[in-house]
Amino acid sequence: MITQRTFGTTKDGREVLAFTLGNDRAHVTILNYGGIVQSLVVPDRTGAPVDVALGYPDVRGYEENGGYLGALIGRFGNRIGKGKLTVDGKLYELYCNDRGNHLHGGKEGFNRKIWSHAIEGNALVLSLVSPDGEENYPGTLKVRVTYTFEDATLRIAYHATTDQKTALNLTNHTYFNLNGEGDGSILDNILTIDCERITPTDPTMIPLGGFRAVGGTPFDFRTPKPIGRDIDADDVDLRQGNGYDHCHVLEGRGLKKYAVAESVKTGIRMTCYTDMPAVQFYAGNGLHQQGKGGYYGKRAGFCLETQAIPNNVNVPEYAALGSSYLAPGEVYEAVALYKFE
């Protein structure tokens, strides 16, 4: 069942709608502004409802604060080094909004768009046309993102086509705290990531090539451990990211389970699946804003952003594991699932 209501209006007077999918026991609320996951409520071990997604209570919060809370990210999730995108020998200079690099779509990414909407049975379908030249990307891009929430599983399916060769790397930027979004810290959330390698970065967080094995490092989540156990270890990649903010390379093709997170406090467990080649694990190191349930400080939420490897448009060995180039006649399709128990 999907219900619809007015969530508010933007500063320039556009209506923002909220769609709630699910039932009384477990439900998710999605906005047509930025495709944002505004809340995600599931029962704890006692049956009490817990909102595990960070967010804001009104439109103004999303307009005035950074952090991309809950949002769809595009055209390019994560970073492109120095904003340089080359397509068929032509260089496109993209807007640089993060330490001299292009991040999450640039000056005005998909997270700040009002998306068209349709309800198709138990699915919410959001769609957007990004015109040729928007944020200096080539090609008119048509994007469709489908949300379902059944059996306490949030499924996000991405679909896109273009009329010119371009670059595309869609993801979702929901911050989770399985203790509850107002708890204040995710350091005691238990996390497992099925990953053998990360991509090391330069001091501006750009992967420039090569891989780093996680064994014997703070990035080894192959067996369950609290997020906070090694987050402040003396490690060059952790120092550059001010904590976890790194791409974990996933093994195998097709849909796969890649992560499990759990709260000792609530008993809520989240199992994650994707068919994408990588996931950016971000521990909310830069959070500093007032949210729905109180103040969100540093490490109040964590993200698992499924995607292609950042900067793969400039690093052939990364593109070989999943290229972000999309040509006319090709279809971009990807899926991410978050199952709650």
Observed structural traits:
341 residues, mainly beta, Beta-galactosidase, Chain A, domain 5, 9-stranded antiparallel sheet, 5-stranded antiparallel sheet, globular
Descriptive overview:
With 341 residues, the chain is mainly beta. It has a single domain (2-340), classed as Beta-galactosidase, Chain A, domain 5 (Distorted Sandwich), CATH 2.70.98. Helix content is 5%, strand content 41%. The chain has three helices and 29 strands. The chain has helices at 59-64, 236-241, 316-319; strands at residues 2-9, 15-22, 27-31, 37-43, 49-51, 72-73, 79-80, 84-87, 90-93, 102-103, 116-120, 123-130, 141-150, 153-162, 166-167, 171-172, 190-193, 195-198, 212-213, 225-226, 245-250, 256-262, 269-274, 278-282, 289-291, 294-296, 303-307, 325-326, 332-340. The strands form eight sheets. A nine-stranded antiparallel β-sheet has the order 11-12-13-14-29-23-22-17-20, with no helix packed on it. It has a five-stranded antiparallel β-sheet with strand order 1-2-3-4-5, with no helix packed on it. The protein has a five-stranded antiparallel β-sheet with strand order 19-18-21-24-27. Strand 2 (15-22) and strand 3 form a beta hairpin. The chain starts with a strand and ends with a strand. The relative contact order is 0.17.
